[in-house]
Amino acid sequence: MRDLTPTGLTQASGTKGGIGESTLRPDGTLKVTGEFAYASDLWHEDMLWGVTLRSPHAHARIRSLDVAEALATPGVHAVLTHADLPAATRYGLEIEDTPVLADGVVRHHGEPVALVAADHPETARRAAAKIRVDYETLPVVTDEASATAPDAPVLHPGRTDVPQGPPTSSGPGGTPIAPHVPHPNIVHRQPVVRGDVAAVKDRADVVVTGEYEVGMQDQAFLGPESGLAVPAEDGGVDLYIATQWLHADLRQIAPVLGLPEEKIRMTLSGVGGAFGGREDLSMQAHACLLALRTGRPVKMVYNRFESFFGHVHRHPAKLRYEHGATRDGDLLYVTARIVLDGGAYASSSPAVVGNAASLAVGPYVVDHVDVEAIALYTNNPPCGAMRGFGAVQACFAYEAQMDKLAAALGMDPVEFRRRNAMSQGAVMPTGQVVDSPAPVAELLRRVKAMPLPPARQWESAGGAADVRALPGGLSNTTHGESVVRGVGYAVGIKNVGFSEGFDDYSTARVRLEAVGGEAVATVHTAMAEVGQGGVTVHAQIARTELGVARVTIHPADTRVGSAGSTSASRQTYVTGGAVKHVCELVREKVLELARARFGTYHPAWATAELLLEDGKVVTDGGEVLATLVDVLEGEAVEAEDEWRHRPTRPFDRRTGQGFGHVQYSFAAHRAVVEVDTELGLVKVVELACAQDVGKALNPLSVTGQIQGGTTQGLGLAVMEEIVVDPVTAKVRNPSFTDYLIPTILDTPAIPVDVLELADDHAPYGLRGVGEAPTLSSTPAVVAAIRQATGLALTRVPVRPEHLTGT
């Protein structure tokens, strides 16, 4: 042991790569060079390939199902239908209403009907095509009118959470329909009522109403659904999967397989994006069922066509708003009715309804509110989680209303918003007090103050137009004729974390040991890294709290407790909070060990505040007392624990009152567009954003999240929509040929102004970042197009025919 008497003391230099620094992503280089291993790259020597047969109809009864010819195909090892399921036949995130395989009725286009395992993917596909299914088509439910009509087919007649029967009568045995779910084809209903709208309506000098529509957006992640199931000797299975929530998958899969959870070992594989679309099961149970039936590893990979049917989408919505204000520009009341199309199965629709209702008014102070939000069961594709989660649809509508009000009052739209903007201490329509910074007015001021991009950027000194800067771009459709500019603004509010009383926690395991003469920390969580940069932040937290340079991130799996979903902008807050908490436990253990070993060498061991920095134990004055390698002496220090944010409460079913959300995030956008009014083409020139992030743990990653969310909002504004046939409920455009997403040529400059006002309730004061910019970017773009064209534009995405009237 080396001499640690006071004569040997040195000054600490601090640990690099901690929070607040823009450290590089450990997976970044591998991803941009094509070397990163995604789930679709999984391989096992003797594996089979699994394929799904899906329904060509949106609503049909299965009269017969013949698999004999498929099973007789050479190379086929198994064909499974609903009749072959060993245990539970349904699953679901919130309501167990989704069949593992169709159970006599299909309720949406593309619903899984049968599974095939074969020694080659093409063999499996050909065998699946040989399965003979006799369908009896049934009437389709496609909207609120058809879902709640007196003669509407009840899509889930076995519901136990709501009495059955038409909305105007009693259910079986004279039982009244539950008032919060007035019809069995309504998944969930949430009112929010505060103040007395009727009493103040007459005081409104200006009243504006509007009806708005939001199309069905796809998450459009580039890595398709994929996974590999490997049967184990203990009768269980090992599943390697691209997902957002390992433990929720496990909870749903175990009953389907008829196995205890400890016999299903799940490991996260490389995920090529998610945005909510991997929160529900896709092929997880299917691959495991085939592997256990055949005794062979089974790989499943969806192609792009199948991916559109293999995951949920953003809820399309119809919204009706009424706002009343005084002539001075003060909001008096808001009424709103929000109808979300949940599709054939519930997924996370109840939680999406809660978000849409509670955030329906936006980041404004309004004392009198009457909001109703519902989600429907229909035969359209199932909808669930997508970035923004109910707040996107509401934001498009309430921001359009704010522009209409400003115009009616003759006020500047930004100043009108700032006049009514909430701030810390404001009361939400749910009665919840906003008890952390809410700099809505400041964000609007900042985004408006950013320099505007130069006009007519396509013009060069020589007079020739640079078509890349024009609407239509390289299609060379215009050279600047009939092109007009518009500028629009919007601001939004998004909750962070799981809400309404959900037990939102995360588990972390941290180990500190000496390896090769250097202290190394290993962080193990079940957090799904889907591209958000969580693995980078976890390493930064460990460096900050434990003072080590080397941090290893253990692969995410179910051998450690749940980390919750990588959604709701919650992972840095909740799992980051868990990593911070457990690192603090490890640090205390290390300091106890150090005091026991070296406490007699220097009085500072007993009197000073001790820190871990740069691989050393140091005083708060920077004096080095010992190295971590000497303290550990070959011993590993480990801790594991759960961490929770402060609890939330369910919203009252009748009034919507309650402390429903743990945190709010805010972002404001200014969009600059140029529109060819003759051709109906739009070029978004710039989409500037100002956002409060509390504390930027990794500034570069924060900027990337804001720019990514902004781009996804741009897509919804002008191009992205899954088109569903209103008569047949079939998807018309399940491909990236026909479902368009922004490319690098469509994405404008996105200057970002980051504000850091700490939330004292959150680790490091941080605020969830990823979703808020997805809200306000869409209405800002549409507001700019409205200013350029003078058109009302009440639907997104805005299409050329909406601008030309053709």
From TrEMBL:
Family matches, as Gene3D superfamilies: Aldehyde oxidase/xanthine dehydrogenase, a/b hammerhead, Aldehyde oxidase/xanthine dehydrogenase, molybdopterin binding domain
Any Pfam family hit: Ald_Xan_dh_C
Domain Aldehyde oxidase/xanthine dehydrogenase a/b hammerhead: from-to ranges: 33-139
Single GO molecular function: oxidoreductase activity
InterPro entries: Ald_Oxase/Xan_DH_a/b, Ald_Oxase/Xan_DH_a/b_sf, Ald_Oxase/xanthine_DH-like, AldOxase/xan_DH_MoCoBD1, AldOxase/xan_DH_MoCoBD2, AldOxase/xan_DH_Mopterin-bd_sf
Highest taxon above the source species: Bacteria
Annotated stretches, region: Disordered: 1-26, 145-181
PANTHER family, per database record: XANTHINE DEHYDROGENASE, XANTHINE DEHYDROGENASE SUBUNIT D-RELATED
Designated name of the protein: Xanthine dehydrogenase subunit D
The species this protein was found in: Streptomyces luteoverticillatus
